[in-house]
């Protein structure tokens, strides 16, 4: 089983690149973020024509999440359910979508695509909205699932968890996506029972990034951050094969500022 996550930074602009990725890599499950379209404007047809089932949730803004699966979903979830303050997160349905599938050795496998808010400036209202989103996300999983359930949560978390996840920790300390409160929120989410796939395979690796600024020649210099993650529960950890960033798609004409992150499982 191959799964992947990719913040495409506009599906309208990257529609053909996603199609190329599906044909070239052939993931069984692909999570997309920042599609930036309403669901009625999402380009379902080209992906369905090559065998993918597609679900999407989006709105007018910069959000939008999707899941593409070779197996038909049994159940679809959008946004937060069973949580204490779902009304406090009006854009949650544009930031979290999940499907239950049967296959890949599991009678029930839940897969989620998430797009965590960027947070704006540290200590701003939007920054605390981001932290609250993390807490609400953890509450959603605690009240809906068990850590023993097979779950994949992947997407753009807008957090680089450790110093080795950014190109210059001293320079970036205190900047958005790399503040202590954000890192604590990320690890608090992991405490539900999630494992960070890349760190499980490569605990000491440095310079492995998924995002690079469009400016300053950042990609060529590999001045990036690891903001995209594939998190899994223990039933999948035992089957984890490899994890890597497909950087070739960051070199395409008009690329996203993110590259796809891919995980392979021995099922």
TrEMBL record:
Entry keyword annotation includes Magnesium: yes
Site (Interaction with DNA substrate): 258
Residue ranges that the Swiss-Prot or TrEMBL entry lists as coiled coil: none
Binding note for cofactor: Probably binds two magnesium or manganese ions per subunit.
One Pfam family matching this protein: Exo_endo_phos
Binding site for Mg(2+): 7, 34, 156, 158, 257-258
Cofactor(s) the protein needs: Mg(2+); Mn(2+)
Keywords attached to this entry: Hydrolase, Magnesium, Manganese, Metal-binding
InterPro entries, sorted: AP_endonuc_1 (IPR004808), AP_endonuclease_F1_BS (IPR020847), Endo/exonu/phosph_ase_sf (IPR036691), Endo/exonuclease/phosphatase (IPR005135), ExoIII-like (IPR037493)
UniProt xrefs under Gene3D superfamilies: Endonuclease/exonuclease/phosphatase
Chain positions of site Transition state stabilizer: 158
GO biological process: DNA repair
GO MF term set: DNA binding; double-stranded DNA 3'-5' DNA exonuclease activity; endonuclease activity; metal ion binding
Domain Endonuclease/exonuclease/phosphatase: 4-258
Site (Important for catalytic activity): 228
Keyword Metal-binding: yes
Active site: 115, 156, 258
Similarity comment: Belongs to the DNA repair enzymes AP/ExoA family.
Family annotation (NCBIfam families): exoDNase_III, xth
Name assigned to this protein: Endonuclease/exonuclease/phosphatase domain-containing protein
Species this protein is from: Thermodesulfobacterium commune DSM 2178
Lineage: Bacteria, Pseudomonadati, Thermodesulfobacteriota, Thermodesulfobacteria, Thermodesulfobacteriales
């Amino acid at each position: 089983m191959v799964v992947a996550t990719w913040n495409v930074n506009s599906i309208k602009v990257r529609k053909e690149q996603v199609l190329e990725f599906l044909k070239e890599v052939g993931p069984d499950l692909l999570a997309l973020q920042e599609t930036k379209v309403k669901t009625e404007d999402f380009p379902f047809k080209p992906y369905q024509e090559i065998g993918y089932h597609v679900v999407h949730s989006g709105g007018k803004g910069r959000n939008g999440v999707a899941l593409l699966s070779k197996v038909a979903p049994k159940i679809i979830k959008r946004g937060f359910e069973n949580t204490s303050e779902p009304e406090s997160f009006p854009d949650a349905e544009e930031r979290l979508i999940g499907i239950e599938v049967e296959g890949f050795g599991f009678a029930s496998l839940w897969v989620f695509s998430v797009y965590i808010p960027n947070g704006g400036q540290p200590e701003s209202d939007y920054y605390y909205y981001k932290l609250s989103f993390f807490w609400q996300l953890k509450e959603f999983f605690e009240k809906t699932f068990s850590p023993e359930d097979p779950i994949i949560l992947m997407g753009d978390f807008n957090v680089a968890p450790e110093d080795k996840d950014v190109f210059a920790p001293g320079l970036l300390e205190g900047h958005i996506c790399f503040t202590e409160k954000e890192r604590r929120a990320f690890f608090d989410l992991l405490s539900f029972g999630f494992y960070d796939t890349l760190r499980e395979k490569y605990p000491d690796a440095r310079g492995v990034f998924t995002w690079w600024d469009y400016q300053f020649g950042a990609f060529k210099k590999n001045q990036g951050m690891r903001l995209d993650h594939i998190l899994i529960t223990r039933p999948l950890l035992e089957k984890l094969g490899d994890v890597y960033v497909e950087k070739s798609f960051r070199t395409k004409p008009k690329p996203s500022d993110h590259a796809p992150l891919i995980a392979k499982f021995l099922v």
